[in-house]
UniProtKB/TrEMBL annotation:
GO CC annotation terms, alphabetical: protein phosphatase type 2A complex
Disordered: annotated segments: 1-60
MF terms in GO: protein phosphatase activator activity
Gene Ontology BP terms: meiotic sister chromatid cohesion; signal transduction
InterPro entries: ARM-like, ARM-type_fold, PP2A_B56
Feature: compositional bias, Low complexity: 27-38
Protein name, UniProt field: Phosphoprotein phosphatase
Gene3D superfamilies (alphabetical): Leucine-rich Repeat Variant (1.25.10.10)
Organism: Trichomonas vaginalis (strain ATCC PRA-98 / G3)
Length: 516
């Protein structure tokens, strides 16, 4: 057996005997036959002797040099070692670990500032890229908390987001997101050194976009935008990942929170597509983007959806007619909020209608538009009438007056005459004036035809009322009941006001009051 030298013994760390808290462990101060061991233990004293949660003994953030202060041949090893040490998880909700949290922030800030330095030469080594990307993935990878669907309102402008909730790990996660953004923003970033890691990180970014934290969504969107140009040959792969994520939201029970950031990045993709659009992109627009209109929570991401639609139509105007056709087919019947969104969209899309497709678009749009005008929902009716303030929509309604005026003018006239909301009646009169000023000749022709039809309808009503009057005169003996039934006839049939003069006076007085 070899003897150890004094220097070796001095360098060795002394062995510290840790106390055992097992109930079977023998006492170091008492013998087996002592009277202390025979006494019964007091449970209250045992509870009072419980110590608070101890600090993890494995956490260690030793002082280290700054990455930019070491020699070039030491940079790689220092980056890798700092990334490994920074992977230690520190619970920021515990105040007793504040020292460790500060030490970890020092490591993270050193890595971040190094990557943000444009004059720093990043070692082009797979180990360096692997260390940094794995550090990012280690901190952001988690199962995202999905909020219950009942927390969001379908009919109201209310959606629950976690702006007010504090995430204990968010301060460190912000630094991590900035680190990833700084890495992919570098001009010397080389995708060849980290193909698999970069693509896996991209899929993780798309997955995490379902987080209800809006601030994290902004960071993820910024990271997505920075990664796309650097992926090179994997750019089509990245777009396919985004497309599949949107398709799951449109056709399955996937959480809709991720739709807003995904549509934002998809809009940027569409703006960069070549004109005319490829067949693949057109199919994606028709099969994925348009079905998002049917989502019950579409109001949450409506602005981003409309901006994405306009980005595609700007590249391919031939998609305008399928868009109008789809919107009319899925028009909401009960939800006022979605009706207002759809009305706003048809006004925005009017500026993208090609001249040769004006007749087709108006033919598919007019029936639904006229039903909305004369509907009992005053909000939808007034919003639809207010579209005449948009020049492009007025152009769409007056470009082919021979097809539009015969359908639109009767609906506007009915709204101006009998709608229960006074503002809707005034807006309908203003719309009629706009149509008359744009093409007075066709307006007068349609007006004469409407008068003829109105006269025929009144004559028919009078004939039907006279038959009822004859029955009342022959079979009703009470004079009071006769007058009451005449009054009912004057309300039901037009042109029969002479049967009940008092009702006629009431109508005239009401009309004068409305005019005042």
């Amino acid at each position: 057996m070899q003897k150890k030298s004094v220097l070796t013994l001095a360098k060795e760390k002394p062995k510290i005997l840790k106390p055992s808290f097992s109930p079977r462990a023998p006492s170091a101060t008492s013998k087996s036959g002592s009277s202390l061991s025979s006494r019964s233990k007091d449970p209250l004293k045992e509870l009072s002797n419980l110590k608070p949660q101890e600090k993890p003994s494995k956490l260690s953030f030793p002082p280290a040099k700054l990455i930019r202060s070491v020699k070039e041949n030491e940079v790689k090893d220092l980056i890798v070692s700092k990334c490994k040490i920074a992977k230690q998880n520190v619970d920021l909700s515990r105040q007793d670990l504040a020292v460790y949290a500060t030490g970890k922030e020092g490591y993270l800030f050193d890595i971040l500032e190094t990557l943000q330095d444009k004059n720093f030469n990043l070692p082009q080594d797979p180990d360096v890229y692997s260390a940094i990307i794995s550090l990012v993935a280690f901190h952001i990878f988690r199962t995202v908390t999905i909020l219950p669907d009942l927390w969001n309102s379908v009919h109201d402008d209310y959606y629950f987001e976690m702006d007010t909730f504090s995430d204990p790990q968010w301060p460190h996660r912000v630094i991590i997101y900035d680190t990833a953004i700084a890495l992919f923003k570098r001009s010397d970033f080389n995708i060849e050194k980290c193909k698999l890691l970069a693509t896996d990180l991209f899929k993780l970014v798309v997955y995490l976009m379902r987080t209800p934290n809006k601030e994290e969504q902004r960071k993820l969107t910024e990271l997505y935008v920075c990664m796309i140009p650097k992926l090179g040959e994997f750019r089509s792969f990245a777009i396919n990942v985004t497309n599949s994520a949107l398709a799951r939201i449109a056709f399955s029970d996937e959480n809709f929170i991720a739709t807003k950031p995904l549509l934002q990045v998809m809009r940027s993709h569409a703006e960069g597509f070549h004109t005319p659009l490829k067949k693949v992109h057109q199919i994606f627009y028709l099969d994925v983007i348009l079905p998002l209109h049917k989502h019950k929570h579409s109001h949450y991401f409506w602005q981003d959806l409309v901006s994405t639609v306009t980005a595609f139509l700007d590249k391919e105007p031939n998609l305008v007619f399928p868009t109008y056709e789809f919107i009319v087919n899925v028009w909401p019947r009960m939800c006022t909020t979605k009706q207002l969104d759809f009305i706003d969209e048809i006004g925005i899309l009017a500026s993208f209608v090609p001249d040769e497709e004006t007749s087709k678009v108006t033919k598919i749009l007019l029936p639904q538009y006229c039903r909305t005008i004369v509907g009992v929902n005053a909000w939808s009716s007034k919003r639809a009438l207010a579209l005449f303030d948009i020049n492009d929509f007025v152009w769409l309604m007056t470009e082919v007056p021979g097809d539009v005026y015969p359908s639109l003018i009767p609906s506007l006239y009915e709204c101006a005459k009998i709608h229960w909301d006074g503002d809707a009646r005034n807006l309908a009169l203003a719309c009629l004036n706009v149509l008359r000023d744009n093409n007075r000749k066709i307006f007068n022709v349609v007006g004469k035809a409407m008068k003829m039809l109105e006269n025929q309808r009144i004559v028919t009503d009078i004939k039907r009322a006279m038959k009822w009057k004859e029955l009342i005169d022959n079979f009703e003996t009470s004079k009071r009941n006769k007058l009451r039934k005449y009054e009912i006839l004057s309300y039901i049939f037009d042109g029969c006001e002479s049967l009940a003069p008092e009702v006629t006076k009431k109508k005239k007085n009401k009309k004068k009051a409305d005019e005042k």
